[in-house]
Amino acid sequence: MSMKTGLYVLQGVDPAQVAAAPFDVKVVEIYDDNGRLFGSEQVRQMGGGPGGALLLGYFSIGEAENYRSYWSTIPKSAIGPVDPNWPGNYEVKYWTDEWKSVAKTEIDKMLAAGYDGAYFDVVDEFQLPWAERNAPGGDAAGAMKILIQDLSAYAKAKVPTFKIWVNGGEELLTDRRYLASIDGLFKENLFYDSDGSARRSTAATRTSLDYLKLAQTAGKDVIAIEYVSGAAAIADVQAKADAAGMGSYIARLDLKGVSLDGVRPGQVMHDDGLAQQPLAPSAPPATDPGADPNPVDGTSDDKPLAGIGGRFIAVLNGRAILRRSGGDAVTAAGIVGSGPPANQAAPDPAAVLLSVPEPPVPDGSSTGSTAPDAGDRIIGDARTDGLLAQPDGAALIRALQGAGMEADLTLLTGEDVFGMG
């Protein structure tokens, strides 16, 4: 996996400047300096949509900001202490329904404008004493994981290719369901302190790197954000980031405007990979599971998993079984979430393990389109240990691979996933 470069601008967002900046992942404030939302044309100019950079809209998930339009909708009882470093920003009870509603509204604005994804800031709010004292059961970390997982599922159910990136909170990456719900991370102050004046301790950096490695191993991109200045410090950041297998961005403390301080000779913006890739030939028909709860004969583990009700949907090399509750039809809504389009030959018949029958087309659904949506055929590729979804009538298969497969299935289908072996 090639290292991606990043851009982070929260003030003075100039669409033309952002568009021209040679970075792969661009995080921008979705409002201009006068509080107006950027329109779809400006979002497209900055890189929203297939091709160009991956454009992520900013949302502070761990703090409420009193200059936002949502401020008056939050109960005062949900507002905590002010952030001493950012006047107007307050800790918030992010586990409440009211805050989740705020977050969904901001995500909806990003979806409507055409952003490629959302960027959640202040994820590490869960580490602060006020959150720990007030979170349900004292589990501030668990509450943050649940919120991000829920918001990821919400966004991807609407636009399956929509990406969720987070800033920090790398301690949460030990939870595979949380890990599966995100697509990448920025990590501020990984090598230097918050104002870039001194290096962090080797132990602190190593601890963060160990957590971040979990994301990298799962195929997630990580980008280090540092606030250093001077050629020597910039070179030091880049050398350390290179050694850790991640990109970097040298930011300004006020995050105002595009900083080109860390741009290397020959650095260019790479395509975001969101454009659909053609695949030929189409996959052969898969076997209908019918009412038989057993995995398909001939797989690496064809014995039933005892003690679980309902009906099984898929087995991949004996590792994961998806159960549909009762006898209800199961759809494949959003099962494209954690990987790019798979531009590979279709699996041979022996690799096809199981198929989900097309359910009746509900009113207003997009079933039948070439986009990944509810009702798409699901197959398994035993060679890659991946789950594939084939949109109706489209010569396209998207892969969902890796250790996060089971968690992705649970989050995106609402069904239970059981590991085997």
From TrEMBL:
Gene3D superfamilies for the chain: Aldolase class I
Name of one Pfam family that matches: Glyco_hydro_114
Domain of life per record: Bacteria
SUPFAM superfamilies: (Trans)glycosidases
InterPro entries linked: Aldolase_TIM, GH, GH114_TIM-barrel, TM1410-rel
Stretches assigned to the Glycoside-hydrolase family GH114 TIM-barrel domain: 52-256
Region of interest called Disordered, as start-end residue ranges on this chain: 266-303
Protein name: Glycoside-hydrolase family GH114 TIM-barrel domain-containing protein
Species assigned in the record: Methylobacterium tarhaniae
Lineage: Bacteria, Pseudomonadati, Pseudomonadota, Alphaproteobacteria, Hyphomicrobiales
